[in-house]
Amino acid sequence: MNIALIGYGKMGRIIEQFAVDRGHHIVLKIDADNRDELNTDNLRKADVAIDFSTPDSAINNIYTCFDAGTPIIVGTTGWYGQLQRVKDDCLNGKKSLLYASNFSVGVNVFFFVNKVLAKIMDRYPQYDVQVEEIHHTKKLDSPSGTAMTIAEGIVENVERKNEWVNEVVGQTEIITKPDQLLIESHRIEEVPGTHTVIYSSEVDDIEFKHTAHNRAGFALGAVLAAEWLNGKTGFYSVKDMFDFNISDI
Ligand SMILES: NC(=O)c1ccc[n+]([C@@H]2O[C@H](COP(=O)([O-])OP(=O)(O)OC[C@H]3O[C@@H](n4cnc5c(N)ncnc54)[C@H](O)[C@@H]3O)[C@@H](O)[C@H]2O)c1
Ligand SMILES: O=C(O)C1=N[C@H](C(=O)O)CCC1
Hints:
Blueprint: E1 2-6, H1 10-21, E2 25-30, H2 40-43, E3 48-51, H3 58-68, E4 72-74, H4 83-92, E5 96-99, H5 105-121, E6 128-135, H6 145-157, E7 163-168, E8 180-187, E9 194-200, E10 205-211, H7 216-229, E11 234-237, H8 238-242
Parallel strand pairs: 1-2, 1-3, 3-4, 4-5, 5-11, 6-8, 7-8
Antiparallel strand pairs: 6-9, 9-10
Helix pairs in contact: 1-7, 5-6
Bound molecules: nicotinamide-adenine-dinucleotide and the ligand O=C(O)C1=N[C@H](C(=O)O)CCC1.
Binding site for NADP(+): 35
Organism: Hufsiella arboris
Function: Catalyzes the conversion of 4-hydroxy-tetrahydrodipicolinate (HTPA) to tetrahydrodipicolinate.
């Protein structure tokens, strides 16, 4: 496939390596310093665009791909407040988009098991629950998109939690109400991404943790998503690609 990379930072560069290794061609690279080259003429040279840019630029990038009719994979986080509008416009315009807060196989297994665990823990009110995420200090958004997906999986399945709230350690201090799920965000040099779900009772704790050792899992997942999206129209999340089911177990 011919691929347009939108965002050529830490992720864009690794995605390029995996895409080329898998026989694809990079026909456009857009970063902050040449963002005026992101236009419909240039995008039409690509079969798919892969966006790992910034929370502030993602929406404009998505709509430029919609205008060009170029399917887009969105890895950028921090724009999910606009998800419903983007979904409606994608479906109404018969466009093609797949997004994920995290493309790695390990985290997508984690997302699935997190929901199963939450359903079980729903029965045990003696346990409180919280989510912790740790990322590098250059990360622009908090909480991480991955932590939001994890928190949504808990809130959907644990009746005593109705919403999540975020504390950025060292910046904001939150006193949670019993029905609020705390997401604690830590920023530590060079950490690619660590997520932990902790259920605590007076007698014991259960900790469920995913640790990314590097960014390769995210990057390969994004290229596999681009291959999966090829030929499809519609609005997808990475869940549609992995399609785990409890009957698989
Ligand atoms: N979904 C996932 O699996 C996953 C994994 C890792 C990172 N991410 C997300 O991807 C995004 C990028 O992460 P990163 O680590 O590569 O960040 P990065 O800062 O290394 O790279 C982002 C790049 O976007 C460029 N940029 C800025 N404005 C732009 C514009 N208007 N158009 C195009 N590019 C522009 C910047 O110059 C920079 O090079 C972040 O939102 C991050 O949270 C998602
Ligand atoms: O490095 C980042 O930034 C990451 N962003 C994603 C998120 O917000 O969950 C995925 C993990 C790495």
